[in-house]
Amino acid sequence: MDFKKLKKMTELLNNRLKKIYSSTGYNSTLRSNASELAEVRNVLKIASKTLPGHKIYFENMYEKAGFPTFYRSDTLDLLKHILELVK
């Protein structure tokens, strides 16, 4: 997958999560939202393949995304990091 597709997927997910986070003010874990967790893991899997220099980092974050201590705010920070890398 190329950078443009990764960037677009990440931006869409980032915007959607920002809306949810800002409207509810509830910083729930991704683990409690299976569809969000699946989308985030999909973006991380693609990022690890598209950005080979950061492969181990994204693979580790893929695992951490399912932990009970990984919150939406952490996810937004991670997506922001991906967007910075693909610019």
Commentary on this structure:
This protein is an all-alpha fold and 87 residues long. The chain contains four helices and no strands. It has one domain (3-86). It has helices at residues 3-24, 34-50, 55-64, 72-86. The radius of gyration is 12 Å and the shape is globular.
Write the layout of secondary structure elements.
Elements: H1 3-24, H2 34-50, H3 55-64, H4 72-86
Low-confidence stretches: none
Computed structural class: mainly alpha
DSSP, total strands: 0
Strand content: under 5%
Amino-to-carboxy terminus distance: 15 Å
Q: Helical stretch count?
A: 4
List the helices and strands in order.
HHHH
Number of domains: 1
Give the fraction of residues assigned to helices.
over 70%
Salient structural properties:
74% helix; mainly alpha; 87 residues; 0% strand; globular
Task: Kindly summarize this structure in a few lines.
This protein is mainly α and 87 residues long. It has helices spanning 3-24, 34-50, 55-64, 72-86.
